[in-house]
Amino acid sequence: MKMSLPVMTVRLKNVLEYYDGPILMTVVDSVDTIYICQLIDRATEFDEFFCVPVSQSSLELFYLGRIDLRDIFIKPEKRYFSLVKVVNYEEPMDFESIAEEDIASEWYPDIGFKLTAYPKLTAYSAQLGALKSM
Questions:
Q1: pLDDT in tens, 47-88
Q2: First to last CA, the chain
Q3: Nearest to 68 by CA among 78, 54, 81, 79
Q4: Would you call 78 exposed, middle or buried from its count of C-beta atoms within 10 A (0-12, 13-18, 19+)?
Q5: Do 40 and 50 contact (CB within 8 A), yes or no?
Q6: pTM for the structure as a whole
Q7: Pairing, β 22-28 against β 93-98
Q8: What does the domain layout of the chain look like in residue ranges?
Q9: d(CA 87, CA 75)
Q10: How far apart are CA 96 and CA 83, in angstroms?
Q11: Do 119 and 86 form a contact (C-beta atoms < 8 A)?
């Protein structure tokens, strides 16, 4: 039996990979929990991401290429899975919990994806930051 959990909102923290739009990003909730999110569907109305919580220390290891993105998703520090639907990256995004058994295997990142350098603030994230300071 599926339980419907309340939908909350998150906001964009950083875009880590971009190809015709964000494909890998971090978002934060109202208490600054960080989630790493991978694009699973790009539709006309919205982009949909599969997300897991990630600690700052694990995120740092990923940024330095010491851990694989798939490992973050397969062995999350907290077994909490969610979907984010993004209509506008500048606005709060709907964030909905999903049960582990509802995760499609193709949502998991490919084996071996690592960042090779600590990401710089992306132009997209910098633009959003500039908009927020206005």
A1: 999 999 999 999 989 988 889 999 999 999 999 999 999 999
A2: 46
A3: 54
A4: exposed
A5: yes
A6: 0.83
A7: unpaired
A8: 8-117
A9: 29
A10: 5
A11: no
